[in-house]
Amino acid sequence: MRSVELLYFLYLAGFLFASIFQFRASSSEFKRFVNVVSLIVVVLFFSILISFRPLDAGNDTSRYASTFDQLIDFLSAHSVGEDYFGNTELGFWPFSYLIKMMGFDSSGFIFVIGCLSLSLIIMYSVLISREGNREFSIILFSLLGSYIVVYLGNHVRASLAIPLVFIMFCWVGSQRRLATMSGIIALLFHFSSIFAFPFLILRNKLNRSFWIAYILAMYLLSKFVLGVVLIVSPYLPFLGKKIELYFLFNKVAEFDSIFSLTNFKILSLLVGMIFVLKSNTIWARLSFYLYGLILALSIVPQVSERIFPFLMFVLPVALYDGLKLHFDNSMVALIMFLVFSLNLALVFSAESARYTLALVGL
Description:
Helix content: over 70%
Order of helices and strands: HHHHHHHHHHHHHHHHHHHH
Distance between the termini: 11 Å
């Protein structure tokens, strides 16, 4: 069986098992059994997807591996990473050197980062399920049934930073110190994390009319983004190289417009569903905020596309909450299974995803 078929069959079997039995569990012990089985399936899925693929798959992984090989000590790790890889975040390469000190080579480094990323996603799923009486296994499978699998496979720094951002949002109301620490670490690993922080100011905006106006305003703002960046860039020296690369020098993306991307159309459909379902939880509002941000940055597709995985992390939760307002548990599980199973099929059938993850088949 080819790798993509094996992965998709494993995902379908695990998600279908969780969808059938999670809500029908007659005891907490059986529900715990369903969660454990789901977790085993997800770990196996992730292992096949990430751990056994070649280091030359995709565009960035080989560069991470070669830069890792150049690390010689903790203090110089940041400058080595900046010279060889090009990123300026302060935390990632010193952290990577700690992994190297444990005896891991470049292949082991990618494996360890993958394990840490999956652990953070599982932690986020646990926090989300406890916070709003959501089913852990449904949330976990839904998260992996999106383009997140591509980011986990190739965007190494982001695969750690993005789940840390959403763990921060889980803690912000009850564990302020942990939330602050999570947010700082995320920013030290990937500067794109900063895009999520302004939502901390807007998270209590409950009026749906506000979010309609916000999305429209952000779309209109896209026409002026380059001008705004030119004005504020002198005050953001720590982001200077990123601003030059993506905004001022107009780095060429693999696509000319986000509006032509299938992934953007899927995200738009899901955001529309959440709005129609009249979900007004913090996670629904966060999805509206991120979608507006994608529109505002659409004039620079390479930057706008960086927000996609953030939105993918919140959509399963927001959709789950919206469905719970209108349907019983069995129907919620069925709809979540259908939506994200179909979404993963579209991801695995995309040529770019197969190239990035070195998948064979379809």
